[in-house]
Amino acid sequence: MVEHAARHRAERNGAGQHGDTGQHGDTEHWVELRVHGVRATDPEDMLDVDRVVQVAGDELGRVFRRADRRGAELREPDGHVVEAYHWGRLTSGSFSQALWLLLAPFGLVNAAQFTLPRPVGTWPRRWHELAGAALRLLGLAMTALFVLTMATLTVDLWAWQQAGATGGGAYALALLAPVALLGFFRWAAGPPAPDVREAARKDGGIDAPVPPSREQPSDLVHRDFFLGAHDLGSLRLLHVAGGLTVVAGVGAPLTAAAGFPPVLRAVAAALFVLVAVVVTAGLRDLNTATNPWDPDDPAAAVARRRRRNTELVAQALAVLAGSAALVTVGAALLAPVGGGTGGLPGLDLICFLVMVVAAAAVGLLALGNLLVARGVRAGDAFAPYAGGWACTLLALLGLFLGVGYSGAFATIVAAALTSDERPVVVPELLSRVAYAWGITAAGVLLLAGYLLVRRRSAIAAVTPAVAAGAPWLTGRWARKVAAAMWVARLKNGLACVLTVFGVLGVVLTVFAAVDLAPVVGLPPVALPWMLDVLSWWPRPDAPAPAFQVALLAFGTLTLTGLATGLMLLARTALFGASARRGINVVWDVVAFWPRAVHPFVPSAYSARAVADLEDRIRWHLAPGRTGRLAVCGHSQGSLLTFAALVRLAASPADRALLDRVAYLTFGSQLQVMFARGFPAYVNRAAVTALYGDLRGNWRNLYRDTDALAGPVLSWRRPATGWIEAPGAPVLDRASEPGRERYGPDWRIADPLPPADPTLQESCLLPLRGHGEYWLDPAWYEALADLGCPRAVAHRTASPDAAQGLPPGQGGQAGMVVDEAPDPPGVDARVLAQGPADRLAQEEVGIGQVGLDGVGEQTQVGVGAGPELGDDRCPAQPPVGVADPGAQHRQE
Predict the structure, then answer these.
(1) Compositional bias (Basic residues) at which positions (predicted)?
(2) Are 89 and 248 in contact (CB under 8 A)?
């Protein structure tokens, strides 16, 4: 199997009839390999041509090159090859992937596992395992919530309250619907890639460069990373068992009505408790468990035996839960005709118990996250979001979204079934969900209103500075650029927004449980007025306050709109590839991470994409090929290329390949998002180590107007205000027309200055923001700076035009490109340090300047100072200060 998988991948990545053996030869010319980001950019757009031809890969992972009208490959005039690796079909290639939208809450909870800080030491590993166990329990609670919602719609709202007069057949059919939902989850998530998982099981990993080791700065190099949970099969069986116990519990009143002993609900509750215990304590944490297929670990044999035992227990529980559900369906056929006048008996109790399980999981997660994040340092450009609390916040977001999904579909179905003759009585939990979403929606509107008000004043304040620093930007253009910079800075407040709404979600969940206490026989809890605002309970002795009624109505309207929007989006995505690419942006980010705590999420596309990139790099740099390879990663593609290069650098057999690799990231979130959201996988030590492994041949391009990206290879030392980069303790800013360099970080102007100011009084080029970096003159200047020669001459008629300047004003910059320029030097002290030494270096923030004189720092954007909770990046002085060292100090 391993040999077949390797041979199949080699055939995919071979050049075939369009190989590098054409008229230009393959030994002297370099190759430019571009990798797209989210939304599956078309190959034609990636290569900036009308026609492309596929030269390698298959129907999912494809490699394209430029082609003429006859389909023959086209090269650049200087002879170098430009090709694009397209992985978009891995997340949006088929119509069934449009249905992944419904699995988004599961995906967020699963991704939360990978946001935990890296555990160092025995006790941090234990706290990490506690957080992982809590996430698995939360994932089980969310599966139970979705099954319970489907059972509520079909068994309670339809069969019990509307179709009861038709007899037991309606009950049995209604009970089969939540069972079918479990089957849909299993089908929609899809199986793991067969040539990846089977090879990994037999060979110990997917192109595994090294065994799991804490000496590596990034966990991306571990053999078992792309495999996901070692007990994935058991986890899937346990989720199925948990869902089936919910079906049995909901149908218990029907079995009692049919004359069976009223013990089924107790049996179902006991089975669910057993499932929850095994999910929490019986399975192992992905990041700390022993890989059962690791040939280098002597404990692997014990892990395999433990895995088999767990799987036997999971199979037994699945059989018992399936038997209970089957008995329930059979008994429902014998239930008497009639139905009920109110809601299904016992349904509110099941809702309450599911909420208790979810609340317990959140409490355990918060505790584990708090303990494992105690060593996180703040004030660094790479510091994790919210002091290391991103795991809890992302999980809460997934839970709140899952509750919203459930409430949305319940609301719209209840509205469709109700009538004047036979009104539908919705469960009490639905009122709480609607009220909570009303409060949340009102909070979102208030935040949006504040941002709109702040936007106007911020743009007005910074527009004069933009116009002064960039004379080619007239009034309208200056305001447009200032607005784009303001939008770009909003990403700095992401952690603050998640924290606010995460805490709000917890509070609303607690109050919803308090509201449901009388339903399950507990005494009601009296709350002060200020807290009672967050609670919805219609007192029988008095009408509800008007503002609570309004919030309930607003929440119901919000949930109805959410359900309608989801259905319209799914319908559009089923029949439109473009819409599917847009909708599945969330999966472009979330599905990079393998299945860890929830089995009903799509398999990680990164396993295939990273393996393809590794093979493609090896193929281009195989023995007999002496040229260079420029790996260019955009947005999410920068994370894929980063993972591939980090894994190659960790492999003794492949490390030498990096001597001929030039790495160009553009529009990348490696520092501003990925390092802060997933610190165990992307961090300062890993970035510094890869920079050293590449001998400094790494450049990064970004724009002030890019709403998603930012610096990668430069950051600020808070104490001195100096700007640093890998291998260069202090950087001097190099200001050039249209761009500014901070060592390997290049900040490029957007829009570019006009080529001839005498003919163009204002800028004619559009704002490019997050896209089309390869159309900027800085693109080929950066590649030339990385040792890929003759990259500029074919793009422009003069070196001045290459810089976007009028003729005669470009000076010497860009006029001569060495045939083989020496790579930038790397500080020997950095190369000599181990990963632990690099990680122990003083961590710093980011500091960049505005467009040619705009006295504002890039990360902060516009305005008089930091906002939205971002105090890491103070403003910068304008270009042209006399003291080269002072230009990096804070104002």
Answers:
(1) 1-10
(2) no
- What is residue 777's predicted lDDT score, i.e. its pLDDT? 86
Token output for 343: 């809601």
User: In this structure, are strands 81-86 and 745-748 parallel, antiparallel, or unpaired?
Assistant: unpaired
> pTM of the full predicted structure?
0.81
440 domain residue, yes or no: no
Calpha distance 701→770 (Å, rounded) = 11
The verdict on 288 and 195 lying in the same domain is yes
Highest mean pLDDT among 18-27, 486-495, 754-763, 783-792: 486-495
Could you tell me if 680 and 593 are in contact, meaning their C-beta atoms sit under 8 angstroms apart? no
Structure tokens at 679: 């610190």
Both 69 and 204 in one domain: the answer is: no
Question: Considering only CA atoms, which of 253, 268, 247 is closest in space to residue 164?
Answer: 253
Q: SS3 of 35, please?
A: strand
Q: Quick one: which H or E segment has residue 734?
A: strand 734-736
**81 CB contacts (<8 Å, ≥6 apart)?**
20, 29, 30, 31, 32, 65, 75
For residue 352, pLDDT over 70 is answered with: yes
Residue 416 scores a pLDDT above 80: yes
Cis peptide bond upstream of 528, omega within 30: no
Range of the domain at 7: 2-35+41-86+605-888
What's the rounded mean pLDDT across residues 490-507? Answer: 77
For range 287-293, the mean pLDDT: 61
Question: Is the pLDDT score of 617 beyond 60?
Answer: yes
Give the pLDDT score at 625: 81
Q: How far apart are CA 599 and CA 103, in angstroms?
A: 11
The CA-atom distances, in angstroms, between 350 and each of 247, 262, 537, 598 are 11, 16, 19, 22
| pLDDT on residue 674 | 93
Helix residue spans in 599-694 (DSSP H): 606-620, 636-650, 675-677, 684-693
Q: In what order do the strands lie in the sheet with 629-634?
A: 52-57, 62-66, 81-86, 31-35, 629-634, 661-666, 698-703, 745-748, 739-742, 734-736
The H or E element spanning position 183 is helix 168-189
Long-range (24+ apart) CB contacts under 8 A made by 255-260 are: 255/327, 255/328, 255/331, 255/332, 255/335, 257/335, 257/336, 258/168, 258/331, 258/332, 258/334, 258/335, 258/336, 259/334, 260/327, 260/331
User: What DSSP designation does 102 have?
Assistant: G
Task: Say which DSSP state 832 is in.
Answer: H
Percent over 90 (pLDDT), the chain: 28
Q: Which of 366, 396, 411 is the last residue of a domain?
A: 366
Question: Residue 596 CB: number of other CB atoms within 10 A?
Answer: 27
Phi, psi for residue 573 in degrees, rounded to 5 = -70, -30
68 and 129 part of one domain = no
Q: Is the pLDDT of residue 830 over 50?
A: no
| 771 part of a folded domain | yes
Sign of CA dihedral 428, 600, 609, 284: positive
- pLDDT surpassing 90 at residue 164: no
Rounded to whole angstroms, the Cα distance separating 824 from 172 reads 72
Given a cut of 70, whether residue 890 has pLDDT beyond it is no
Residues 6+ apart with CB under 8 A from 850: 465, 466, 469, 704, 856, 857, 858, 876, 878
Q: What is the DSSP track for 651-665?
A: -TTTGGGGGGEEEEE
More confident residue, 869 or 747: 747
Average pLDDT along the chain: 76
Look up residue 285 and give its two tokens. Answer: 């944490």
User: In the chain, how many domains are there?
Assistant: 2
Same domain, 122 and 14: no
